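User: Structure please.
Assistant: Input sequence and predicted structure:
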Amino acid sequence: MVAPRVEASPWAAPRRRAESLRDRHGFVAEVLTLYIALLEVWEQAWAAARAGGGPEPEELAGWAAQQVLPAVVAATAESGPKPLVESLFPVADLRAAEELMAAWLAGEELVPVERYLARASLRGPLEALDAGAACARDPSPRGGRRCPRCGGPPQLSVRTDTGDHLVSGHRMLQCARCGESWGFSGSACAYCGETGGARRTVYAEQHDGPRVGRGEPVNPLSGNPVSGNPVSGNAVSGNAVDITFPHIRVEACATCERYLIDIDLGRDPLAVPEVDELAALPLDLYAAERGLSKITSNLMGF
């Protein structure tokens, strides 16, 4: 008799990476402490959604409101930065909570704390279920600059590892909603599609560049100063040494004034894009200093 296949949890690698980066970069310790706490919630929700009796995709909003949202609120209250904890609010009733979940699945605009609660509550089960069916009410197109699975916007860009430092990897976009990855042109803006090289700029960290912002950058969640290596607003330099994020850069577009974080797995094969993007807070702050807006804020609002 063949033993039933046990599928490995998708949350083990993010947990290891988050713990490693939290120990390495004190300026994102609060953010990654909360992320690690949420991983426990997501793993339990993922397992429950995959188990017999889990929700059908069209029932996900109500199921997440009842089964996952309370755990997200509890984890945030225990491990989250004080400003985020203070912004939490009790969801009046189950119907209101379900409407909040349904709005995120339908692609509606939410205020930051609502977006955080919905996104954190749905991340685990969306990994397990048919995200396309769960997000069927979202009228966004599938494919191209939107997720082919659920229609969500891109959270970040990833360059695959070819095993050869002289060969650039393929570019992938990763969905902000369901985590799906899909191939995308390496020479086009992921927001507006601009392909003109003169309109697209890459920014990367340099050892001797100016600091992010004026004086010490500030963590918008905690209000505390962010310390770390300087970040340069010049084009990528091949001479950068002793830098914090050698595998991360900002890809910006002058046409739409949007950007997203790009993770190069060829430069750091141990990177977990979702986690490394959270840790790249100084680059987000630098982009904001230049008047750029992120295509999609990440889970923590950066």
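Confidence is low (pLDDT under 50) at residues 207-241.
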